[in-house]
Amino acid sequence: MKFKIADYAGFCFGVQRAMDMAWEELETMNDDEVYSLGPLIHNKQAVKVYEDKGLNVVDDLDKVNEKSKIIIRSHGVSKDIYRNAVDKNLKVIDATCPFVKKIQDIANEYYNKGYKIIIVGDKSHPEVVGINGWCNNEAITIKNIEDLSEIPRNYKKYCVVAQTTINLNMYKEISEKLKNILEDVIVHNTICLATRDRQKSASQLSKEVDCMIVIGGKHSSNTQKLVKICEENVETYHIETVSDLHAYDIKKYSFVGITAGASTPSWIIEDVIKFIKNI
């Protein structure tokens, strides 16, 4: 059996940066407590390592003791979260991905200029929730082409941004249609370079192999998109850890492709590689 790993697989820059920042805080903490607002990344195995080190994962600032440290994860949060953290005398460790921060700044700038903000992405995803919090939670969020019919036309001007991990081709198609149906619209391509490269390399590899293994959390948006991209070309298996592979008959394939979402640690990828090598 042959196998090949996609050129771009595993931690992206933003995730690696957030994990490094969090680990540094845990390494240097004394009597102070360290919290993260929501799981650092969408990978429960990696998050558990940090919890074992002393990280407290909470879903609300009200659950954080005063004067503690609060880590803002790579997905980012709304403007109100920062205000509330200051009011509680918390030390904020801002690990927001720079690419996500750029989108927040765009949404805030154009909202203040009177534009209606349109976010193309998953309305419930923490990154999108955070971006919406920089335009007074008044953004219109659409997920696909079908949602275009729901966009109100009673605003004078619109500004469009994208969740960093959405499918590039879909965003291009939505952007072109928005330009056709809205008179005054500014479109910003805010899909991060790492996402574009990851999706492109996964697509290319999936056309060369007999099956694809996509490693990543079940709740990871970018991993789910990799699965859909690969499924268009070849039989695809979405797993979180190597133990999930035991449910599939991988032995029947002669050439296996491997890729991984942006929140997948290198040690989980290595476990899968060892499994394939043993076959």
TrEMBL record:
**Annotated residues for binding of dimethylallyl diphosphate:** 42, 75, 125, 220-222, 263
Where [4Fe-4S] cluster is bound, by residue? Answer: 12, 97, 192
Task performed by this protein: Catalyzes the conversion of 1-hydroxy-2-methyl-2-(E)-butenyl 4-diphosphate (HMBPP) into a mixture of isopentenyl diphosphate (IPP) and dimethylallyl diphosphate (DMAPP). Acts in the terminal step of the DOXP/MEP pathway for isoprenoid precursor biosynthesis.
Q: Which HAMAP family match?
A: IspH
Going by the record, the broad EC class of this enzyme is oxidoreductase
Alphabetically sorted, this entry's keywords are: 4Fe-4S, Iron, Iron-sulfur, Isoprene biosynthesis, Metal-binding, Oxidoreductase
Protein name stated in the entry:
4-hydroxy-3-methylbut-2-enyl diphosphate reductase
Q: How and how many cofactors are bound, per the record note? A: Binds 1 [4Fe-4S] cluster per subunit.
Names of required cofactors: [4Fe-4S] cluster
PANTHER family reported for this sequence: 4-HYDROXY-3-METHYLBUT-2-ENYL DIPHOSPHATE REDUCTASE
Q: Which family does it belong to?
A: Belongs to the IspH family.
Give the enzyme's EC designation.
1.17.7.4
Listed InterPro entries: LytB/IspH
Functional pathway: Isoprenoid biosynthesis; isopentenyl diphosphate biosynthesis via DXP pathway; isopentenyl diphosphate from 1-deoxy-D-xylulose 5-phosphate: step 6/6; Isoprenoid biosynthesis; dimethylallyl diphosphate biosynthesis; dimethylallyl diphosphate from (2E)-4-hydroxy-3-methylbutenyl diphosphate: step 1/1
Binding of isopentenyl diphosphate: at which residues? 42, 75, 125, 220-222, 263
Q: Tell me, what is one Gene Ontology molecular-function annotation carried by this entry?
A: 4-hydroxy-3-methylbut-2-enyl diphosphate reductase activity
Q: Gene3D superfamilies, per this entry? A: 3.40.50.11270, 4-hydroxy-3-methylbut-2-enyl diphosphate reductase, catalytic domain (3.40.1010.20)
Annotated binding of (2E)-4-hydroxy-3-methylbut-2-enyl diphosphate, by residue: 42, 75, 125, 164, 220-222, 263
